Amino acid sequence: MNIYDVSKRAGVSIATVSRVINGNSYVSEKTKKKVLDVIEECGYTPNAFARGLGLNTMKTVGIMCADSSDPYIASAIYYIEQELRQNNYDALLCCTGYEVEEKEKYMSLLLSKRTDAIILVGSNFVEVDDSKNQYIREAAKSVPIMIINGALNGENIYCTLCDDYHAVYEATKSLLNNGYKNILYLYNAVSYSGNKKLSGYIAAMETENRADLKIEEYLQFFHGSLMETKDHLTSLYKRGLPFDAIVTSDDSLAISALKFAKENNLSVPKELSIIGYNNSIIALCSEPELTSIDNKLEAVCYNSITTLMGVFRGQAMPLRTVFSCEIIKRGTSRF
Amino acid sequence: MNIYDVSKRAGVSIATVSRVINGNSYVSEKTKKKVLDVIEECGYTPNAFARGLGLNTMKTVGIMCADSSDPYIASAIYYIEQELRQNNYDALLCCTGYEVEEKEKYMSLLLSKRTDAIILVGSNFVEVDDSKNQYIREAAKSVPIMIINGALNGENIYCTLCDDYHAVYEATKSLLNNGYKNILYLYNAVSYSGNKKLSGYIAAMETENRADLKIEEYLQFFHGSLMETKDHLTSLYKRGLPFDAIVTSDDSLAISALKFAKENNLSVPKELSIIGYNNSIIALCSEPELTSIDNKLEAVCYNSITTLMGVFRGQAMPLRTVFSCEIIKRGTSRF
DNA sequence: TTGTAGGCGTTATCAG
DNA sequence: CTGATAACGCCTACAA
Predict the structure, then answer these.
(1) A18 domain residue, yes or no
(2) Which bases of chain C are under 7 A from a protein CB atom?
(3) What pTM, to 2 d.p., does this model score?
(4) Is the CB of B47 under 7 A from strand D?
(5) Which residue among A102, A315, A322, B31 is least enclosed by CB atoms within 10 Å?
(6) Quick check: A176 CB within 7 A of strand C?
(7) Are residues B302 and B158 in the same domain?
(8) Does residue A333 sit within a domain?
(9) CB-CB: which of B58, B74, B282 is closest to A74?
(10) Mean pLDDT in chain B?
């Protein structure tokens, strides 16, 4: 059943059928009804491929993320999908993993599928070594690139993010103001936003101007499972590194920190304050619940899609939008 | 840049270019190289829409889920996407919410996009009132329908699931065997798999043959946030309903149960045993960590895609595949 | 081994 | 307001 069949049955030309379907040009009420009736009657649906070929778009945008099962990313995908759908766009999902080579591969795959835009979810898409971001700029020559929670300069690259620097700065500063002295910064990823957070921590610590504190020891990069991370902290503790608070770059790290505290009978938040990041579902699962930095994911995603639709309409849109984070105070911290 | 441009530059016909691209028919090494060089040189990529139109497929399968941010569903999506990609298929994601009307809408949307198959993630897609499942059977006339964790009879509908009945039966039975008497069953969704779980619980309880226990009171349906669920349990407790164990249909409910225990100073698992379901990431976030029923999501997803690929190849494939769950024992239970 | 030509199902541009 | 007809870019018999 195609447009010819419909046109024959309705006794009109295919042009008229097309007009009725798309409702752009004027068609007399009478013929319109006739066509509509036939369409209804034989359950005709326009062929999306043919339409795609003619219009050179299937109204689809590609979403790239490292791992859709990560709670933070999963939420982002949800918000993005909803918003795209609202605007009549489909979402093509790609889980790339964390390797740049893979990301490049998926990028050209999506490009070859001719999606109308590509959304990069997560700051891990912005490499610190900028030459590795070239493939993104290259892609931006074909379609608009939207980055969720990461910033990259370049034409046709639109970034929406939260001010991670400030958030970590404020969180660390608050701890200092409340008497915590030796604050550990625990992180598991090096990326654009990762570096911002790190800088926020360092800047806050430097306001104290302590000569005795070797900050390198307090910058703890560790990538592993919940248990491995807990063990890592325990080994630091046993080795005698003194710390009374831990600021983390992710809620899951904070969960590990909490497990570490339990294992070593440190009372939280009295002897050890812990601050998570992302304010994801898991922040509510522990006891006490995690104090966590909320990076306004829904607002960020919403803004990104709104910007994209503006770009589609040919409007001038800001290349960068920055939201403020909010510290959600719960049981693992004392301010 | 299209196939004509390439053919001109290479000094061959478009048919030859097409043959080189698709590598099906024989082309002399010399011309092949020539064409490949031109393609490389001008960065030509075949137009996916045109190809789709000709072949009547874009090698895309639709994924429908209620909410991609749910940890269980998010994991399923991840496994599915990876497996599809492995087989050179793209994943089109739809988050439908929990209303049947919406699901129907999305189903016809995907159908109109002419995806090669549609995957329904989550038992919530199978309604207890079977007439509401008619739209799925209808869709199955056009494309294979794969159901993850739900069962629905029908031609061209392939289901892969875990034996929820047995899992809950065994879990409940184990608690009974270990001296727990008043076991509450807490659930938040009515669906195919929801009913299976419920039956498993009831069957296990009936083996005890207790005249004094009004089982209706122990069947607790409650749908709400973590906190609301906790409060619901507290109100049951205050009202005097005696219970020493809680079996739940979802890890998040078990988290609420744990919070309830903390709030009321009940020691877990001594005074109260708690069993979760799905063995998701959040089962590891609490203290003690949740004993949870693992429903082998990765295996289920893998099987579903393998089955789908068989269907695509025209092979006869089983309409239903059932895996066994596994009870992962952790700190919230004593067996 | 290679080329020619028709078909896939739309949309859009002109005439009328 | 409506109808012919030419794109859109590829695949694939069929011919050579």
Answers:
(1) yes
(2) 1-5, 7-13
(3) 0.94
(4) yes
(5) A315
(6) no
(7) yes
(8) no
(9) B74
(10) 95
- Res B228 pLDDT > 90: yes
Which of residues 156-175 of A have CB within 7 Å of strand D? none
Report the sign of the C-alpha dihedral through residues A19, A20, A22, A24, in that order: positive
Same domain, A217 and A174: yes
Q: How far is the CA of A2 from the C1' of C10 (A)?
A: 10
Q: What is the DSSP letter of A289?
A: P
> What is the per-residue DSSP string for A1-48?
--HHHHHHHHTS-HHHHHHHHHT-S---HHHHHHHHHHHHHHT----H
Residue nearest to nucleotide D2 (CA to C1'): A16
- How many domains is chain A built from? 3
Phi/psi of residue A246, each to 5°?
A: -135, 125
B19 touches strand D (CB under 7 A): yes
The model's confidence at residue B40, banded by pLDDT at 50, 70 and 90, is: very high
Q: Are residues B67 and B155 in the same domain?
A: yes
Cβ neighbors of A101 (< 8 A, separation 6 or more) are none
The residue to which tokens 């630091």 are assigned: A236
C-alpha triplet A287, A293, A295: angle, nearest 5°: 130
Question: Which residues 94-113 in chain B show a CB within 8 A of chain A?
Answer: 94-95, 111-113
Amino acid A213: pLDDT: 83
Domain range for A81 is: 60-162+297-324
Query: Å between B13 CA and C4 C1'?
Result: 9
The token pair at A137 is: 């700029």
Q: Give the mean pLDDT of B307-321.
A: 97
Query: CB of residue B16 closer than 7 A to nucleic acid strand C?
Result: yes
Q: Which of A50, A56, A77 sits opposite B68 (nearest CB)?
A: A77
Is the pLDDT score of B292 beyond 90?
yes
Q: Judge if A87 and A133 occupy the same domain.
A: yes
Q: Which of A67, A78, A262 sits opposite B67 (nearest CB)?
A: A78
Residue A262 sits at the chain B interface (C-beta within 8 Å):
yes
Q: What percent of chain A has pLDDT over 70?
A: 100
What A102-109 contacts at long range (C-beta under 8 Å, 24+ apart), as own/partner pairs, is A103/A64, A103/A135, A104/A135, A106/A64, A107/A64, A107/A135, A107/A136, A107/A139, A108/A139
> Quick one: closest CA in B to A225, which residue?
B284
Q: Is residue A313 over pLDDT 90? A: yes
pLDDT tens, position by position, A100-140: 999 999 999 999 999 999 999 999 999 999 999 999 999 99
For B75, the closest of A49, A69, A91 (CB atoms) is A69
If asked whether residues A10 and A102 sit together in one domain, one would say no
Looking at residue B249, the DSSP 8-state letter turns out to be S
Q: What is the CATH number of the domain that holds A158?
A: 3.40.50.2300
More confident residue, B189 or B94: B94
Residue A306 and residue A281 in one domain: no
B115 CA to C6 C1', in Å? Answer: 26
User: pLDDT value at position B25?
Assistant: 79
Q: How many CB pairs under 8 A join A and B?
A: 130
Q: What integer pLDDT is reported at residue B310 of this predicted model?
A: 97
CATH number at residue A19: 1.10.260.40
What is the average pLDDT across A32-44?
A: 94
State the DSSP string of A106-141.
HHHHHHHTT-SEEEEESGGGS-SSGGGGHHHHHHTT
Residue A332 lies in a domain: no
Considering the domain architecture, whether residues B199 and B270 belong to the same structural domain is answered as yes
Residues B271 and B174 in one domain: yes
